[in-house]
Specification:
This protein is of the alpha/beta class. The protein is built from 24 helices and 10 strands.
Length: 620
């Protein structure tokens, strides 16, 4: 991501200033579709996701087909030995050939199976890494609104859990599924060749069991799976919210309420899990009981006795039927354990592909360069309208001009659209009507990389990564020298504090040695902006977390830094922006007043009301 964009994703959910509560989750693309249509779509999505590894998986499947065929050799060899023994024709050479065939086939089968399974796991690891990288890359490409419309738990579920759900399909289903299917087909053919009468009786027996199991199977299993997936995502979101906000929750004594909501999500997840388990357990319990070798052997011996009495089958055919027939159900029901994982994998693939299908922020084709000299121009909003929810605009036909090199402040009540204006300037969202220009260039004709390189951001609650302090400051300018990093830290009045740490600029954020206050973390983030040295500076209450002494020092630094730059400050404390060249007052998504502090306080309007209210509050 470009500078500014990376730090914005984490903070965007707190932007209640511009009506973030209006951001609604995207409508699932499965809405209104039949179960068959959903299944077809998810199968297609899974195929698209696995397309890069289709070749290696075909190799894995072919190896396991051959290994399944080789696995039948010991059964045939033993049946042959039984027939020769009962015929009285068994001799030493025949015994050696049979035993050698059994040993070679067992070793070869195991080597092929384990080798292909190991290779499938390597392919799976590469695919999951690739999928996760694609998801993270796409997060940096789509408009910010596509990200903040999802909860932290949903994003985590997408990157971690959904990407992990395809593991079983790639690493096990292809290898074990192809082995099971080819083994069942080959075993069935062998049974019919050895004795078609026994094979028919065997098939009828299982058709009867399958019909009874079908009556016990749930009629709405697809809905059960969807309920489970939804409950799992909801539980993840509530868990993330609870852990991330535990300080505020405990501080305000709200532990009980949040824990109740978490427990409700946990109960819904447990209920969905129970219903899903019961739905599968009823038919499976009957089937697995019937095919237990000890139970299955009884009806099979009865079939063998009938066949032998009526001279339908040879000794070899009966031996093959007993040896192979006992193994087929175990192979079949062993493979059924993969079906649930396939279903979950298809649903996860559907969510991943749906996210990857979301339109990226449109980048202009053959965009001409946009440098610092271009950015030193007036910023113009020309009849701009925008809403997070298209049915409700946050900004209504806003037209404004920020003169180049000026210090401009945006003020107004909460929810008036102040922060939205700054986010639209950086194209974190696309305007729905109107245009935004820097000089003569519409920002939609500027590449995101060039635009964000010329706009520096200071948010109230900026992100610090778990890397060294030096690398955190370098986020804005990765190629900056150590001397430039130190100089930026000095301007942000954080250098002395950094040097007091055991490892100085090499101290890792989040380590026991890096116990920084909120104000100190804010100053580290401000040092990034000083290092970026962008010609346009956007600040959202940059000194909100600082004490009076450090606020005064930073105000001094910002005043010096703002010279020859266009500075836009979102302010709630009007005392911090009285020296601004231009103050724009927003109310209900419209610019209602503009001018200097002296001009606005002399007029009847929103600004004077806000100023008087704050002055009364400070006196008290």
């Amino acid at each position: 991501m470009a500078s500014g964009d990376a730090s914005t994703v984490k903070n965007a959910r707190s932007l209640t200033d511009e009506g973030g509560s209006d951001v609604e989750n995207a409508i699932p693309r499965d809405e209104g579709r039949t179960t068959e249509e959903k299944g077809s779509t998810r199968l297609r999505d899974l195929g698209m996701l696995m397309h890069p590894v289709r070749g290696p998986l075909v190799v894995v499947g072919l190896i396991n087909v051959f290994s399944a065929l080789i696995a039948l050799v010991p059964y045939v060899a033993v049946a042959w030995l039984v027939q020769r023994l009962l015929d009285g024709t068994l001799h030493r050479d025949a015994m050696i050939v049979a035993v050698a065939s059994i040993l070679i086939s067992l070793v070869l089968r195991q080597l092929m199976y384990m080798g292909s399974l190991g290779y499938a796991h390597i392919v799976d690891a590469k695919l999951r890494r690739s999928v996760r990288q694609r998801i993270l890359d796409h997060m940096g490409e789509v408009p910010l609104g596509n990200i903040v419309s999802r909860s932290s738990g949903e994003l985590r579920h997408l990157v971690v859990d959904d990407a992990a759900a395809i593991h079983t399909i790639v690493a096990h289903v292809v290898a074990e599924g192809s082995s099971a299917i080819s083994g069942i087909v080959a075993s069935t053919v062998l049974l019919f060749v050895a004795s078609w009468q026994l094979a028919v009786g065997y098939a009828l027996m299982f058709l009867l069991v399958a019909a009874v199991s079908k009556l016990l199977a749930p009629r709405h299993d697809a809905h059960t799976r969807e309920d489970y997936a939804h409950a799992q995502s909801e539980l993840a979101a509530d868990a993330v919210e609870l852990t991330e906000g535990i300080a505020e929750i405990k501080g305000y004594g709200m532990t009980g309420g949040f824990m109740q909501r978490f427990h409700r999500s946990l109960d819904r997840f447990s209920d969905a899990s129970y219903r899903g388990t019961v739905a599968v357990a009823r038919p499976m319990s009957l089937l697995t009981t019937v095919v237990l070798p000890g139970i299955l052997l009884g009806p099979m011996l009865l079939l063998c006795w009938c066949s032998f009495t009526m001279q339908w089958s040879s000794i070899f055919g009966i031996a093959v039927f007993l040896f192979v027939g006992l193994g087929v159900p175990q192979t079949f029901f062993g493979s059924l354990s993969l079906v649930q994982n396939v279903t979950l994998g298809m649903e996860a693939a559907g969510r991943i592909v749906a996210f990857l299908d979301e339109d990226a922020l449109r980048e202009p084709a053959n965009a001409s360069p946009f440098g610092a000299s271009d950015a030193r121009s007036d910023i113009i909003f020309d009849h701009v309208s925008f809403g997070y929810d298209r049915s409700h605009d946050v900004l209504h036909d806003v037209s404004l001009r920020v003169p180049a090199g000026s210090r401009t402040a945006l003020v107004g009540p909460s929810g008036s659209g102040k922060t939205t204006v700054t986010r639209l300037l950086a194209r974190f969202w696309e305007v729905q009507r109107g245009h935004i220009r820097i000089g003569s260039r519409d920002i939609s004709t500027i590449s995101s990389k060039d635009l964000l390189a010329q706009v520096g951001f200071v948010f109230q609650d900026m992100m610090l990564a778990s890397v060294s302090i030096r690398e955190n400051i370098r986020f804005a300018c990765p190629e900056a020298s150590d001397e430039a990093v130190v100089e930026a830290a000095k301007k942000a009045h954080i250098h002395q504090r950094i040097m007091s740490l055991a490892h100085g600029y090499d101290t890792i954020i989040g380590s026991p040695e890096a116990q920084l206050s909120g104000g100190e973390r804010q100053r580290l983030c401000i040092a990034r902006v000083f290092l970026q040295n962008a010609p346009i500076l956007v600040m959202d209450e940059p000194t909100a977390s600082l004490d009076a002494e450090n606020e005064a020092l930073l105000d001094e630094s910002f005043t010096e830094f703002s010279r020859q730059r266009t500075t836009i400050t979102v302010a709630h404390r009007l005392s911090t922006i009285v020296n601004s060249d231009l103050i724009l007052v927003l109310c209900d998504g419209k610019v209602t007043q503009q001018g200097s502090h002296q001009e606005l306080v002399s007029q009847v309007g929103e600004y004077r009301s806000l100023w008087q209210a704050q002055m009364v509050k400070e006196v008290r």
